[in-house]
Design goal:
This is AraC family transcriptional regulator. This protein is an alpha+beta fold and 288 residues long. It is built from ten helices and nine strands. The strands form two sheets. The chain has a five-stranded antiparallel beta sheet, with helices on one face. A four-stranded antiparallel beta sheet has the order 2-7-4-5, with helices on one face. The longest helix has 24 residues.
């Protein structure tokens, strides 16, 4: 930490000119892989939001007297007008993606996240699947921001919105008590294999728990029983299929795991207050 502080004291030298001030466009994005010695300082901040995501290596942010190291999986967001300095940690290479963006009006709620370390927003992405999705969103923002095709700018902004949604999702998850990984595994199975037949006994065996213990843990952490949760997952997916496709009701029932279309209709009406055909007639976006 001493070497880091000394480095920042040097970088705070007024003789060092501000570098890489962002001037143009509503969105600018890139992928940097920088060795020790790389640094950017903005004494007045920028007029847009800066969002960075570290792929590997380590970087460090300094805002006032606050120092925030960042490593693989870390997202750092800097609001407009925040004086800042960031650099590659000594002895390493910082591999990161970044985007400067002027937010769309409807993003305001996504930017209301807790601020720490001198005003920046920090989030850590732990799950490998979510990391891949985050990096993919940045890569799409970078690619589309350089394209000249129709709607390329809109696609780039959509990718940035996905980044913000992932950050907010991470915040929600870390704000709640951590879900037991065995419960999470069962929930994942229900969501991604809803059309299959599931029993509490088989699910419990798959995660090395007794059926009663799994049922208790699941209800405590998810809020509904395993069967009720599976039922809701199936019915919500059925509603999407009814709205966006022209598949017959019996086909939709089978798609989501109901073998008996009459039982499906009964469950759907109990959940949505109308039968599947009525729901489709009121909500369908599918073309004839």
């Amino acid at each position: 930490m001493k070497g880091m502080v000394e480095m920042f004291e040097f970088l705070d030298d007024p003789a060092i000119r501000d570098q890489n001030e962002h001037r143009g466009g509503r969105l600018l994005a890139d992928h940097f892989r920088e060795p020790f010695g790389y640094r950017t300082r903005r004494s007045k901040g920028s007029d847009d939001w800066l969002i960075t995501y570290t792929i590997s290596g380590e970087g460090v942010f300094k805002i006032g007297t606050d120092i925030r190291p960042c490593s693989a999986g870390d997202v750092v967001m800097l609001p407009p007008g925040t004086p800042h300095l960031y650099a590659t940690q000594e002895g390493g290479i910082w591999d990161f993606v970044w985007v400067h963006v002027v937010p769309l009006p409807h993003w305001s709620g996504l930017l209301q996240l807790p601020r720490t370390f001198g005003g920046l927003i920090y989030s850590h992405v732990g799950e490998e699947q979510t990391r891949r999705r985050m990096l993919n969103a940045f890569e799409r923002a970078i690619h589309d921001s350089r394209e000249l095709k129709s709607f390329a700018a809109e696609l780039a902004m959509t990718a940035v919105e996905e980044i913000l949604l992932i950050v907010n999702q991470q915040h929600r998850q870390t704000s709640k008590p951590a879900m037991d990984p065995r419960v999470s595994e069962v929930l994942h199975a229900l969501m991604h294999r809803m059309s299959e037949s599931h029993s509490v006994a088989a699910l419990a065996q798959a995660v090395n728990l007794s059926p009663s213990r799994l049922a208790h843990m699941f209800k405590e952490q998810v809020g509904d029983s395993i069967i009720d949760t599976l039922n809701k997952i199936r019915l919500r997916q059925a509603a999407r299929l009814l709205r966006f496709t022209s598949r017959q009701v019996s086909e939709v029932a089978r798609d989501v795991g109901f073998q008996d279309p009459f039982y499906f209709t009964k469950q759907f009406k109990a959940f949505y207050g109308m039968n599947p055909s009525e729901f489709r007639s009121r909500n369908s976006l599918a073309e004839d």
